[in-house]
Design goal:
By secondary structure, the protein is of the alpha+beta class. It has a domain of 75 residues. The chain has four helices and four strands. The chain has a four-stranded antiparallel beta sheet, with helices on one face. A hairpin with a 2-residue loop joins β1 and β2. α1 crosses α2 and α1 crosses α4. The longest helix has 17 residues. The chain starts with 13 loop residues before the first helix and ends in a 7-residue tail after the last helix.
Length: 126
């Protein structure tokens, strides 16, 4: 950001990025994932008993499903639940099942741009 003379410092919000990284940590390390196979993929039921982690799961999983545009043609559908969220991913069943929940959440080259958008108060989920 400092190297970019066009940076609008009135929009920079590194704290928002920090909060997002905490969310990533919660989903990765503080949630439980149960997997159910469906004909063309899997349903990942992501849960927690901690209300803060439940809120994180719901934010992250539903946002990811809503914005994911996978060129391979995979379909993402997320539904918030009382204890987290269910993420259904269909497409190449073998790949989806091999990647698992965390692997599916990292598919695509969107993360750098996503984090930049958060840090600069742009729309990270569009």
């Amino acid at each position: 950001m400092r190297a970019d003379s066009a940076t609008d410092w009135t929009r920079v919000d590194i704290e928002a990025l920090r909060q997002h990284l905490i969310d990533m940590d919660n989903v990765t390390l503080r949630s439980e994932v149960a997997v159910a196979e469906v004909p063309e993929g899997a349903v990942f039921s992501v849960t927690s008993n901690d209300a803060n982690v439940v809120a994180t799961i719901q934010r992250m999983v539903t946002a990811h499903a809503a914005t994911m545009d996978d060129p391979s043609g995979w379909r993402y559908d997320a539904v918030a639940t009382a204890t987290g969220a269910d993420l259904t991913v269909t497409g190449d069943a073998a790949q989806i099942r091999a990647l698992g929940f965390i692997g599916v959440m990292t598919v695509g080259m969107h993360h750098q741009a996503h984090h930049w958008a958060i840090a600069t108060r742009a729309a990270p989920h569009q």
